[in-house]
Amino acid sequence: LLYYMDENHTMHNMFGFDQRNPHHFETLDNHCLSVLRYVIEHNNCVPLIVRLSAFLHDIGKLFTYELKEDGVHYRFHGHDYVGSNIAYNILKELKFSNEICDSVKFIISKHMLMKQFHDENGHLKISAKSARKVLRKMDNFRDEILMIMDADNKSHEVSSSNHLWHQIDDFRALVPSLLNNPISEKPRTLKCPVNGNMIMSAFGVEPGPKIRDYIAIAQDIFDEFPDATADEIIKE
After folding, report:
1. Which residues contact 63 (CB under 8 A, 6 or more apart)?
2. Three-state SS sequence of 139-167
3. Lowest mean pLDDT across 59-73, 113-127, 155-169, 211-225
4. Are 36 and 43 in contact (CB under 8 A)?
5. How does residue 213 score in pLDDT terms, banded at 50, 70 and 90?
6. Are 172 and 146 a contacting pair, CB within 8 Å?
7. What are the tens digits of pLDDT across the range 69-119?
8. Do the Cβ atoms of 61 and 194 come closer than 8 Å?
9. Does the predicted TM-score (pTM) go above 0.85?
10. Residue 127 and residue 130: Cα distance in Å, rounded?
11. I need a surface site. Which of 24, 67, 135, 147 has the fewest CB within 10 A?
């Protein structure tokens, strides 16, 4: 990776890139290396997809930076999604397997999911509904994404890190209650039980893009009321 060179000199441009952001005290390359180092030092048997994701998690900043209104600092809106695609393309060109490329792309795309959920003491501050949404969006990569998030949080500028220090530990502790099913030994499902056929039958909607809108509304209701049945959600 260190010697990778594409037509945009992406990896080369990481080195020495000044993030010009109050949450960071390191250049982009050093921050990414700090996250990688933290992941390796604080977890056992770190999978390759996590190590790759750690090193490449902020590469999208090279293509999304814009000057804030203060004329001094940068913002990086969408760097998670832009970076996930860049990382995917780099790994594909380096002949990594499709599984590794897809996994790293997904992990990087989700590494900003929880940044806003904290209090002034560095602990998690989140509603049960939002926590279920976050957990669902992590899909089958919860542990890997949480490793990246925790390392990223603790590799920020000191005052910024203090606001995030306990966030991921708190979330990990919360997960069992989110998945606990009071009526079954199987973990609670986070995916809404309402499907497209139910929507079409209940509302007389023709197949098409509008079905996705109904499904999204149903999922939002289920995130709020995780014990609701499909019939109850449709009636709502």
Report:
1. 79, 82, 86
2. CCCHHHHHHHHHHHHCCCCHHHHHCCCCH
3. 155-169
4. no
5. very high
6. yes
7. 887 778 889 999 999 999 999 999 999 999 999 999 999 999 999 999 999
8. no
9. yes
10. 5
11. 67
Q: What is the average per-residue pLDDT within 188-196?
A: 92
Task: Give Cβ neighbours of residue 158 (< 8 Å, ≥ 6 apart).
Answer: 25
For the chain, how many residues are written?
A: 236
Q: Which residues contact 20 (CB under 8 A, 6 or more apart)?
A: 65, 72, 73, 74
Residue located via tokens 């604080």? 42
Q: Residue type for 158, please?
A: V
Q: What is the DSSP string of the chain?
A: -TT---TT-HHHHHTT-----TT--S-HHHHHHHHHHHHHHHSSS--HHHHHHHHHTTTTHHHH-EE-TTSS-EE-TTHHHHHHHHHHHHHHHTT--HHHHHHHHHHHHTTTTTTT-B-TTS-B---HHHHHHHHHHHTT-HHHHHHHHHHHHTTS-HHHHHTTTTHHHHHHHHHHHHH--TT-SSPPP-S-S--HHHHHHHH-PPSSTHHHHHHHHHHHHHHH-TT--HHHHHH-
* Per-residue tokens: 202: 């209940």
